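mind reviewing both lines:
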Amino acid sequence: MTTTAVGVEPRTELSKGLIGAAIAVTAWSAGSVLAKGIDMPGMSLGVYRFTIFSVVMIGWMAGRKQPLRKEMLTKSAWGGLALGLDIALFFSAVKLTTVVNATLIGSLQPILVGVVAAVFFGETIRRSDALWSLLAIAGVFAVVLASNDSAEWSLKGDLLAVAAMLAWGAYFIASKDSKKHLSPTEFTTGTSIWTVAINLPLAILFGQDLSPPSARSWMGLAAMILISGIIGHVLMNWSLVRIPLWIGSTFTLLIPVAAALMAWLFLGEALTIAQVVPVFIVIFALAMIVRGQSASKDAES
């Protein structure tokens, strides 16, 4: 039976990674809904959220006697650039279009990441898993098409979401590659610092209001930092060293599913039968991918 260098079975590590990824994407879904409800421009929201998050992560590292290293910033630069652009574009998109559309468009990045994972990381995607992934992506498209007659829909917002999706895919790739040089905590801290460095000048350039948030917005920011920041980013970066890159990427298809339900419950955004049916198709396809991966690891053991 094959074991890892620390004596832990690969299947156990895979299971941990899958659970961590599932929790992470659920946390990100909540972050999208929280962002919609915070009365701040998109880039300003990114500045405040990641400034506080950076301070929290630096304090966490200091408490564990992990000093900031120059390498942490240099080796996380590409991931930070990708995340910074993703945050600027996505938060701006979610302010213009529906939460469902913004998150659904973002979830299409497995197409990009899957190709990169196969070409540059040598990851093998089984035919059955590729077919289930295509079914999940088709379900995502169906939900987008069903929501385009919503009053909250915006073509400009959807286009910003497409650009954010490309940046999001680049962040996933950088996160996977970072394990050669940095721990998940170091990478998360480094990219959060870079995100502030990118969003601050963009917010100033586009004339966005950077004045202190209201008390209600502070509460929303605190919730975003805890849920989508600490829980979401830390757990996903931790999971990506235990699961294939394309699996972690495909898991993000759960984001629009959870976001759609949360936006319906808490923001009153419409959720029709035409959206609900493909939502369950996405969940089923993802379940089959996870089942196939588990069976594959059993066969290897």
Q: What stands out?
A: Residues 1-8 have pLDDT under 50 and may be disordered. The two ends are 5 Å apart (CA to CA). The CA atoms of residues 87 and 95 lie 12 Å apart.
